[in-house]
Every structure is written in C-alpha cells, then in structure tokens.
Amino acid sequence: MQKDSISTSGAGRFRHALQGILNLVAAVGTVWIFLLMLLIVADVIGRNFFQFPIIGVAEIAARSVVAIVFLLLPAAALNGSLIRADFLLMFMRRCSEKLVHLLDGLFTLIGALLFAAVAISAWPDTYGALQTSEFFGVRGVWTLPTFPFRLIVVMGAAATSFALLVSAIGSFDLGATRKTSSND
Predict the structure, then answer these.
(1) How far apart are the first and last CA of the chain?
(2) How far apart are CA 45 and CA 51, in angstroms?
(3) What is the mean pLDDT of residues 86-110?
(4) pLDDT(80) > 90
(5) CB 53 within 8 A of CB 44
(6) CB–CB of 40/61 below 8 Å?
C-alpha cells in the first residue's frame, strides 16, 4: 500500500534511498541464513558420518535466528510487507480511501512506538553485555560474545521503528492528499 507514496519529491527520494539501505541490511541477513544453513549441514554431516560434531553450532544458530529477524525487519516494515491485511483493506476501500490511509498510518505509528520501546528496553542489557564482556557457550570449550547479537537487536528495532514512522508519515500524507484532491 505504501508503494504509491513514492514520488519524485524529496520525501520520495529519501524513502527510496532508505529502502535501498535497509534492503542491503536485509541482504546481509539473507547471506547469514545461507551461511547458517551451511554450518548446520556441516555439523550434521560431521556428527553423523564422522562422529565429529562442530562445537557451538546450537548456540550460534539460536543467537543467529534472532539477529537475522532484526536484520530483515526494517526493510519489510518500510516496503509495507511486514503486516498484511488485504481483506480488511479491500473492505475499507469500499468505505473510504481516507479512512484506509488514516488507519494504516495509525497502525504503523503504533508499530513504530512498539519497536522504539523494544530498542529502548533492550539497550541496558546490550550496554551491560559490553561492559561485562558477557559471552555465551561453555567457558574453556567455546565462547562467543553476546554484545554483537544484542546490538543487532537494538539497532534493528530502532531501524524498524524509524521505517514504520516513515511509512506512517507517508500514509497520513496520502490521506491528506486524497482528501484535498477529492474536494477539487
């Protein structure tokens, strides 16, 4: 629904550039999925055929899934594919185009506030992980610092909040544009 708000205006160029940056971040998440898949396959082959498992795969996979989600969320939020309510939108379009944009803007604004709350609430643990050199794994066998994974969650939530805020502004702007153009 947000795609029709992209125009040649300054706001449209900003949104397009932001989408490009967020798509690059999402591409990192996609490559990470592929590498994680290779690691898991190598662990399964090593474990079953050579009785030589790769140490730490379960821990890496557990942390990676969360990190990958927060790498992919901002791009999905900005391009409008984070939440799909096509049936509701189809029903509402029969009622009022302005109402559709108002509700879309309201829902994305609430989403922006929720993701901002996630980023803010995750920051103290992230900072604490940096200060205390927190790690996961088994000491003396295999460990990995938790700070980078926690930072991805904070930055991903903040970027998702910003993307949803940009989308909300676009929806409200479309609603206002439709309102003024329908009054002509």
Answers:
(1) 24
(2) 9
(3) 74
(4) no
(5) no
(6) yes
> What kind and span of H or E run contains 137?
strand 135-138
Give me the count of residues in the chain. 184
Distance from C-alpha of 75 to C-alpha of 81, rounded to nearest angstrom:
9
Element (H, E) at 67: helix 57-79
Structure tokens at 26: 């999402």
Tell me: the pLDDT tens digits for 36-59?
Answer: 999 999 999 999 999 999 998 988
SS3 9: coil
Domain residue extents for the chain: 2-182
- Calculate helix-pair angle for 10-49, 57-79, nearest 10 degrees: 160
Cβ atoms of 80 and 3 within 8 Å: the answer is: yes
Output the pTM of the full model: 0.80
Backbone angles phi, psi at 56, to 5 degrees: 90, 0
